[in-house]
Amino acid sequence: MTMLTPRTPAELAPPGRSRRERRAAGLESRTRLVGERLAGLSAAPGVRALQSVDASPGGLTRAEAALRLERHGPNAVAQERAPRWYVQLAKAFRNPFIAVLVLLAAVMYWQDPADPGVVILSVMVGISGLLRFWQEFRSGRAADALAQLVTTTCAVQRRAGSGSLPTTLEVPMDQVVPGDVVKLAAGDLIPADLRLLTAKDLMISQAALTGESLPVAKADTRVQDLGQQVTTDPVEADNLALMGTSVTSGTATGVVVATGSDTWFGSMAGALVGERPQTSFDAGVRKVSFLLIRFMLVMVPVVFMINGLTKGDWDEAFLFGIAVAVGLTPEMLPMVVSANLARGAVAMARRKVVVKRLDAIQNLGAMDVLCTDKTGTLTEDRIVLDRYLDVHGNEDGEVLEYGYLNAHFQTGLRNLMDRAVIDRVGEAEEVVVDTRFSMVDEIPFDFARRRMSVVLARNPLVGGSGDAGPVEQAEHVEHVEHSEHVEHVMITKGAVEEVLALCTHMTDRGERVELTEQLRWHVTRIAEDNNRRGLRVLAVATRTITDPRDTYGVADEDRLTLVGFLAFLDPPKADAARALEALADKGITVKVVTGDNELVAARVCADVGIDVGTVVLGPATDALDDAELRALAARTTVFAKVNPVQKARIVRALRADGHTVGFLGDGINDAAALRDADVGISVDTAVDIARESADIILLEKDLTVLEQGVLQGRTTFGNTIKYIKMTASSNFGNVFSVLVASAFIPFQPMLAIMLLVQNLVYDIAQLATPWDRMDEEYLRKPRNWDAKGIGRFMVTVGPISSIFDIAMFLIMWHVFAADSTADQSLFQSGWFVEGLLSQTLIVHMIRTRKIPFLQSRASWPVMVTTVLAVLTGLWLPFSPLASSLGFVALPAGYFPWLIGVLLAYCTLTQLVKTWYIRRFGTWL
Q1: What is the distance between the alpha carbons of residues 391 and 786, in angstroms, rounded to a whole number?
Q2: 511-514 and 589-593: which strand pairing?
Q3: Are 840 and 872 in contact (CB under 8 A)?
Q4: Can you tell me the distance from the alpha carbon of 789 to that of 657, in angstroms, rounded to the nearest whole number?
Q5: Maximum pairwise Cα distance, the chain
């Protein structure tokens, strides 16, 4: 594994950026300024931090706090609010096809208010928009229900007046103001950005901000501290506590130096409100919509002019042109898309996936790059003891035994690694801990020493281990007073360099040998090798005390004997490798973008089968312009030590490179990237702002669940494309046939009302498309909107139906003598039936690249609706409605000709399909 180190940061902002990109760059600049201010406060003495916000160690008076709350506003960051229901309703009708249909309906109403076509179009528009509104409104409410927000308070020192003593109050977090002195204890959320004034044994979980799986230690601090060295990243400062993090152990006080949008986190939250970037779904629908509208704008005037010039009836030609426009418009597209997405949302809900934005379902199917954090997705989000090693790197049960004794007998707050050791003992049969040990004293952990020790009595009068296990026996050990017959042993566990500095000897294959410089180099290399594998390593050492006493201190941690090492890891999920393999089989490239350590990230990724390659550190991306970052993101699999701004920029770079990008994350540090991705994916346990930014919420943080969502997304997308290609090609073929017939036939080849009815029956036949199944081969690859491909498909497949329409024209003209104005109803009825049945058959021909009915069968809803459409088409010329619609009964001799034309049509379509797939490599 190699690592790319940062270049010197530079401001590279090429001209010509979009408004969204300029806004993002401005927010990134603001975040850097906030970071620089915090870094300055970290480097300055604590007194300077108090002066910067005009505060004192005793806190503000209540009057001062009230004035500052009025001046600075509530301590809350920018959040995106769900639009009002009527705004959502209006947006549901914002679609180019709906606009076309409304325009056509208005023209038809202006021509004839009693025209049934007006009602038909109005119903289509209403159902489509209302269905879309209801699904998004309902799913939005379901997502909101996941956020069970409660009022959170924090402990603040305030004074009644300028001369009074400070008292500790519990105040709501949104009422914290700059200058407040906050008291922190284990379990507390950090309410704002704090400069620590005092701290003892303080451990803070920064996972929500950085993605690091382990808590980080903050320095023991006093009011008179002189600050620390300048750091470019506020999260690395050991005397700052930032909004969005939490205390896992220890105590502290800190002065609030920033609240709300002025905090480090708040500066990033500004990117999460306002207009979302256009996703690949939005761009695809827009391109396809305007492609079809352009066809309509060309074809309709041509049909209108030909009919007006050849027939001389311009009013009839106008109505016929309107009918052709309706025929060319896939008027059911909004409804089919909405039904598709609604069905997809219901199906995904059964698979523990909540869809907040319906469009995200198709983006999920189109996704070809998934960026994900490591913690909790690839790993189990818990710390385990991975190995216990002697000084040569071999597993040794004695090391685990000493580590267990140290962890079990300490009286302080056990950290995650202590618990991991205790849990591991229960699994290790070779470890024996018996009642020979009892507690004498302990030397607690502190961050200056970075170690802790326990002193145990080894009582020689108690022998044997008995039948009980190590944990059960240890629970029954009682604290015993010092006795001259009891031997004491000190067990020290802590950071490798700190413990090793106190060791004079080591245990080598059961023998105590002097720790020479050569052996010291050897054991250091063992620890470093495990660090490079992404493991957190602690050293374990002992000392047998020859002059036992009742109390011990730091000075007694000397002349230790190194026993070995304990190595810890956030273990990979058991099914992570299989899930990644399944995603790769579906054509999805997984990139890990984490704030965690690069060594840990590389180890975990290697364990789950990811080809790590060169790990790129987040700061290395700051010096790159957009083009350089696109190239780097394309070839990089693992990004580590990445801050929130860098995550979002990586996502935008991948999208700019033509990828449909999904981002899976659950922390504050993921929120901007979730919003900038084509599809943001979070989990129900995520922080509130991550859930707000996401499009899809998983009820389990599991890539296997995500894989099922991808398949559902591709099914939804495939069924949508089916409808578009079916209706576009058949409608184009019909209009092409109309052009030919209008030029050579002395009457209208079909009445306008017949075109509308044919279109309505055909559209109803396609309404079951969302319930169709997709061939397995189709689901194996990501699918994107391809307007050019749809146009090519339309002009290739559409004219096939025109060939057989013209054949039917000739049959009606020459065989059945429908060659005059007096017999035009027979001609029109014959073409109506053939046209409707051929359009209905095209549903089955287009829905699969295989041979329909034989190699691939449609779902039963599609079979039912297409059969009903065929029966309706055959029934209408003989029905009571026939005369009002302009139909006449067809002779019996018509039907053998009809069957022959339809069989020839299916055969030719299958041959063209085979050629098309061979030529262009795709079908749907």
Answers
A1: 61
A2: unpaired
A3: no
A4: 20
A5: 127
Q: How far, in Å, are 180, 259, 765, 899 from residue 50 at the CA level? A: 10, 15, 73, 91
Among 562, 441, 455, CA closest to 498: 562
Tokens 């907040």 sit at which residue?
A: 356
Helices (H), 609-702: 618-622, 626-635, 644-656, 671-676, 688-693
User: Residue 52: CB partners within 8 Å, gap ≥ 6?
Assistant: 41, 44, 257
First and final CA of the chain: distance in angstroms?
41
CB atoms within 10 A of CB 274: 11
Length of the chain: 924
Residue 308's SS3 state is: helix
133, 92 contact by CB (below 8 A): yes
Strand, coil or helix: what is 573?
A: coil
Segment-wise mean pLDDT, segments of 10 residues, the chain, 924 residues: 42 46 58 81 83 88 91 76 72 73 77 72 74 64 45 82 83 90 85 89 77 74 65 80 82 90 75 55 70 76 78 73 69 69 77 77 87 81 88 92 90 77 71 68 78 84 42 39 65 92 92 92 92 87 88 90 92 85 90 84 86 89 89 92 85 91 82 84 72 79 80 86 83 79 79 79 82 88 80 86 90 90 90 90 89 89 92 93 90 94 93 92 84
Q: Indicate which residues carry an active-site annotation.
A: 373
Closest CA to 324 of 795, 750, 743: 750
Contact 406, 433 (CB under 8 A): no
Contact 454, 442 (CB under 8 A): yes
DSSP string, 158-187: EESSTTSPEEEEEEEGGG--TT-EEEE-TT
For residue 525, give every residue at least 6 positions away whose Cβ sits within 8 Å of its Cβ, in sequence order, or none: none
Q: How far apart are CA 746 and CA 167, in angstroms?
A: 98
| Strand residue runs (E) in 471-526 | 487-495, 503-508, 511-514
Q: Residue 256 region, left (φ>0) first, then alpha (ψ -120 to 50), else beta?
A: beta
Q: Count the neighbouring beta carbons within 10 Å of the beta carbon of residue 883.
A: 10
Q: Per the structure block, which two tokens stand in for 126?
A: 């209403």
- The whole-model pTM stands at 0.68
Strands 181-184 and 153-159, how do they pair? Answer: antiparallel
* Axis crossing angle, helix 787-810 with helix 894-920, rounded to the nearest 10: 150
What is the spatial distance between Cα 642 and Cα 4, in angstroms, rounded to a whole number? 13
For residues 808 and 27, give the distance between their C-alpha atoms in angstroms, rounded to a whole number. 65
Please tell me what DSSP assigns to residue 891.
P
Cβ within 8 Å of residue 297, ≥6 positions away: none
Q: Which amino acid is at 24?
A: A
User: Any idea which residue has 């209403």 for tokens?
Assistant: 126
Specify which residues 216 forms β-bridges with. 204
**DSSP, res 82:** P
Residues 561 and 506 sit within 8 Å (Cβ to Cβ)? yes
CB 830 within 8 A of CB 888: no
Reading the block at residue 32, the tokens are 């850097």
Percent helix, percent strand, percent coil in the chain, to nearest 5: 50, 15, 30
Closest CA to 728 of 320, 304, 290, 362: 290
Q: How would you classify the pairing of strands 437-446 and 451-458?
A: antiparallel
d(CA 131, CA 62): 53
